[in-house]
Write a structure and sequence with these properties.
The chain is mostly beta strands. The protein is 14% helix and 35% strand. A 9-stranded mixed β-sheet has the order 49-48-47-46-44-45-43-42-50, sandwiched between helices. Strands 1, 2, 3, 4, 5, 6, 7 and 8 form an 8-stranded mixed β-sheet that branches. Strands 13, 14, 15, 16, 19 and 20 form a 6-stranded antiparallel β-sheet that branches. The longest helix is centred in the last third of the chain and has 17 residues, at 784-800. The chain has a domain at 9-35 and 666-968: Rossmann fold, CATH 3.40.50.1820. The relative contact order is 0.10. One of its GO terms (molecular function) is dipeptidyl-peptidase activity.
């Protein structure tokens, strides 16, 4: 790395006030992003352990059992599997398959990193395939940044590993690993001799496989999606008696579905809006149960979603980067238009004693879910109860104000091909476990729903029993904030269900569900803070839930443990800790740099091992392995016996990747980046709520948080720095956080290098502050959040003196691009420039699930769509040039380019100036980011670097609605 020198033209930044050539900006940005070492952070991490003899194991306790605590135990042998981008210490953008071992007798020093190694010494020769359109779009939905490994599955019980890399699927076993054999040993790599400890990988020859999944009952069975069908691969097991390497025998590949081409049907792949707006990317689920027939065959089941998009409008995206006139069709449901329809099906097949797949049958519900429950258009989440007795499904209505959680008896799936329409079928009603309603705002989906292991063995309900039951953990906002709840439900057993016989051709029953009785519900967490929605982990042996939350502060999440059932206590215990004072002192940092943002990456309940990630504004993410312990609370002991309340805690075992100072990682040929200031601004807001009879107003306090990056100029300019106000502003996102966000910090360093301050703010409508805070934008997209940004900008300038309010540019992409356009149109005098990337222009042309969640149906709330449309404020765009810069990708399948083109056409007709940058091959995320950033720097050079020139005031257009007025108070 070079140090900053005045003679180096590439690093001329703060000290230079003249505009620079575009090529200079591009070279600096390209060099900066290339010089920023990829941190090699692990992904797809799995823990596989060899529990010590004293570790608690066995079946989960029943509700009446006493919980015996797990006292501190010796560290078990453990292997971590993960995809990492730092192979052999060399940074890379391509992920590799790595492992790291923890040996009880060979633990490294507490501050040292585990030794990570490639798991495969020699993989089969892979010819990297061109990424399929489906795979490319899935990467867009999942926001995947790196190439190489795109999926990794590990069956920790059998050691089966499934890795998708370069568009090709490998299957192998790490099956000789144990306490006394912690590392695979390289041996002769010939066709007959597999690696000692790692079997030679088998290539599964399926074109463009997606979302592969190992059967939990048989690791030699793998299901996946290819094109529009669900595919099964049967990998031949090893034959020890013959000495034949299993990888030499190709897998058996069969289609579990055979859907007609060009019919807009797909199996195992969720519809676009389910992936993009509900974050569900998988559309099939192995049943965790198998049976053996009288002939010795094993029976397996796979539940899958069949999606019909025939009623969804097609949008055509031009492939204008090529010489041809190709158009790329996308089924894209716009607000108020038809959605895809989905139902669930069950495929049953047998594996014979000679490992042949036979008796493949597709079983259907007598009536599709969308006909049984027509008010619920979205299949949000799906799975199986732990013993496979029931499938469960979470459904949402169109505007997402109602969610249903249902159980589906597997017996309800029938083989319709063997039935005629007049045949009678026995129908068991679906079992409703829970209904949530939020008529005022909306219900957020999450990934925390977890069913508990039944206390009785699978299918052990006594014959003739009157009732069945289940327990599950769920996150709900019923209190106004996301918190954990433990539900216990009961319903009539199959004997007592009101089953009925109906002709297959009959209309669906009018009462397709029965309501289970909620015997008990325990709220487990409390307070005006949020449990984060990403995931939870259960330790059923100790009745503990591990989760992430924001109890201490909205910006710094921590990891907690809370008891349920017999371990039900009064509080959640914080497990994560901050940086020790002595480390900060050795790094020359102040004590306030020690607060960390934590998350839990993986947990192995058998051994109690977990991996936590942590970072902050001065430290890159670190990943550490911990051991979970539970000890009796001093107040819960009686006659030396635990009474059910325990104090969980964790002890660090080793680092997988230690923290690195951000200052040691950022490009050093640029000006150093100082940590951002965390800003807190409090306002008084007038809240309006419509009751059944009148409009109620109330004044309340509003606290907003922001970050301010500033250049290393001492002293700062007397009027403050020219400032880039970086915005997102939309619902479901928290931009201001206490963690280290790689892309944000490198962008901030580049801008600060050229003398710009960077301001961020999370306003009303953003995530993780409760239902009411998010709900301010209901029916008012583009109004309260923009007003908050303006107020925060002015208050931050007043408090710090570091922002020159005469030289501020607003800049954002996606929803942030929409915010930038609305700011240009409504607050043209507040900003001297507006930069909008991939912006939404008119919500009537955005997708159903997102738009209707916040604005309702266009037919019911047309005024909300008018208020939120940029096209309603065209006269307010400034007449100055340069002022407005817009960029968009030509193949953006999320916010279609037609949003920008419709705006440009109208700006042309009104004589409004703008600068436009088009990236024909890019989707929603601009691939040519170095070029775009250089364009932005050049634009800022011409707009806010120099002191302002007096200009005629432009028209400031307010929203045509009744908005809450926000005033500043200290």
């Amino acid at each position: 790395m070079e140090s900053v020198t005045a003679s180096n033209p590439l690093v001329k930044g703060i000290e230079s006030s003249e505009p620079q050539a575009f090529s200079t900006y591009f070279n600096v940005v390209h060099r900066a992003t290339s010089a920023y070492p990829n941190p090699g952070l692990p992904s797809f991490l799995h823990i596989r352990s060899q529990p010590s003899q004293s570790t608690v194991s066995g079946d989960a306790p029943s509700l009446t059992d006493d919980i015996q605590p797990t006292l501190p135990q010796p560290t078990p042998a453990c292997r971590l599997y993960y995809a990492g981008t730092n192979k052999d210490g060399i940074p890379s953008r391509e992920a590799s398959l790595l492992y790291a071992d923890i040996c009880p007798s060979l633990l490294p020093p507490n501050d040292a990193e585990l030794n990570s190694k490639p798991l495969l010494f020699q993989a089969p020769e892979l010819n990297p395939r061109e990424t399929s359109l489906a795979a490319s779009l899935l990467r867009e939905r999942m926001r995947m940044e790196y190439s190489g490994i795109s999926d990794l599955k590990v069956d920790v019980d059998t050691g089966c590993v499934l890795v998708l890399m370069g568009g090709q699927l490998l299957h192998f076993f790490d099956n000789q690993w144990g306490i006394n054999s912690l590392s695979p040993t390289q041996s002769a790599n010939n066709d007959e001799s597999p690696l000692n400890g790692v079997t030679r990988p088998t290539l599964i020859p399926v074109p463009s496989p997606l979302q592969p999944a190992i059967c939990p009952m048989n690791p030699y069975l793998v299901a996946m999606v290819s094109d529009i069908d669900l595919i099964l691969a049967s990998v031949p097991p090893p034959q020890p008696a013959t000495g034949v390497d299993a990888s030499a025998t190709p897998p058996t590949i069969i289609n579990l579905t055979n859907l007609p081409a060009n019919a807009a049907l797909s199996a195992g792949s969720p519809a676009y809006v389910i992936q993009e707006e509900f974050d569900r990317y998988v559309g099939f689920w192995w049943r965790p149960h198998s049976e053996t027939t009288s002939t010795g065959s094993n029976v397996y089941w796979l539940l899958y979603e069949e999606t019909d998009e025939s009623m969804v409008d097609i949008s055509y995206l031009p492939r204008s980067a090529s010489w041809g006139a190709e158009l790329e069709p996308h089924r894209y449901p716009k607000a108020g238009k038809a959605n895809a329809t989905s139902t669930l099906k069950l495929v049953r097949f047998e594996m014979s004693q000679i490992n042949e797949i036979v008796e493949v049958r597709t079983l259907n519900l007598p009536w599709p879910l969308f006909k049984l429950l027509p008010d619920f258009e979205y299949i949000v989440r799906v799975g199986w109860t732990k013993d496979g007795s029931y499938a469960w499904v979470q459904l949402a209505n169109r505007v997402q104000s109602r969610f249903l959680l249902l159980l589906i008896p597997p017996e309800d799936f029938v083989n319709q091909t063997s039935l005629v329409d007049s045949a009678d079928i026995t129908w068991h009603p679906l079992i409703q476990l829970l209904e949530e309603v939020d008529a005022q705002f909306w219900i957020e989906s999450n990934d925390c729903l977890t069913f508990l292991t039944p206390s009785a063995p699978p299918h052990a309900t006594p014959v003739g029993a009157a009732t069945e039951g289940c327990e599950f953990i769920a996150v709900s906002r019923r209190s106004g904030f996301s918190h954990l709840y433990h539900y216990r439900c009961e319903w009539p057993s199959a004997v007592g269900l009101n089953s009925s016989s109906r002709p297959l051709s009959a209309e669906p029953p009018s009462d397709p569900i029965i309501e289970a009785k909620i015997k008990r519900v325990d709220q487990l967490t409390f307070g005006e803070w949020e449990v984060l929605p990403n995931h939870i982990f259960l330790d059923e042996a100790n009745n503990l839930i591990l989760f992430e939350g924001l109890r201490e502060h909205p910006l710094w999440p921590n990891v907690y443990a809370v008891g349920y059932g017999k371990a039900l206590g009064s509080t959640a215990f914080r497990l994560s800790t901050d940086l020790p004072a002595q480390q900060l002192a050795s790094e020359g940092l102040s004590p306030d740099c020690g607060i960390l943002a934590h998350s839990i990456i993986a947990f192995d309940a058998k051994s109690g091992l977990l991996v936590l990630a942590s970072s902050n504004h001065t430290h890159m993410p670190g990943f550490a392995v911990y051991q979970l312990h539970t000890q009796p609370s001093p107040t819960a002991m009686k006659d030396g016996q635990a009474q059910g309340t325990y104090l969980p805690n964790i002890s660090q075992i080793a680092w997988l990747k230690n923290h690195r100072l951000l200052s040691h990682v950022l490009p050093r040929f640029l000006q150093p980046l100082a940590p951002p200031r965390v800003l807190t601004c409090r306002f008084m807001t007038l809240d309006e709520t419509m009751t059944a009879t009148k409009l109620v107003t109330a004044t309340s306090s509003l606290t907003l948080y922001g970050l301010l990056f500033t250049p290393n100029t001492r002293p700062p300019p007397p009027t403050g720095f020219p400032t880039v106000h970086l915005v997102y502003g939309g619902p479901g996102v928290q931009l201001v956080r206490g963690s280290c966000i790689r892309s944000l910090f490198i962008r901030a360093q580049i801008l600060c290098h050229y003398g710009y301050a960077v301001l961020l703010c999370d306003c009303r409508g953003s995530a993780n502050r409760g239902a009411a805070f998010a709900g301010h934008i209901k029916l008012k997209l583009g109004v309260p959040e923009l007003d908050d940004h303006i107020q925060f900008l002015k208050e931050a300038a007043r408090k710090t003196g570091l922002i020159d309010l005469q030289r501020v540019a607003i800049h954002g992409s996606s929803y942030g691009g929409y915010m930038s356009l609305m700011a240009a149109a409504r607050y043209g005098d507040t900003y001297r420039a507006a930069i909008a990337g991939s912006p939404v222009v008119d919500w009537a042309h955005y997708d159903t699930a997102y738009t209707e969640r916040y604005l309702g149906l266009p037919s019911e709330h047309p005024e909300a769509y008018t208020i939120g449309s940029v096209l309603s404020y065209l006269q307010g765009f400034p007449d100055d040039a340069p002022y407005l810069m817009i960029s968009h990708g030509g193949q953006d399948e999320n916010v279609h380019f037609s949003h920008t083109s419709s705006l440009l056409q109208r700006l042309d007709s009104l004589g409004k100036p703008y600068e436009f940058f088009y990236y024909p091959a890019s989707r929603h995320g601009i691939r040519e980011d170095d070029h775009l950033t250089a364009c932005i720097l050049s634009f800022l050079d011409r707009t806010i670097r120099s002191p302002p020139v007096p200009r005629e005031p432009s028209v400031s257009v307010s929203a045509p609605m009744t908005a809450s007025e926000v005033s500043t108070s200290n």
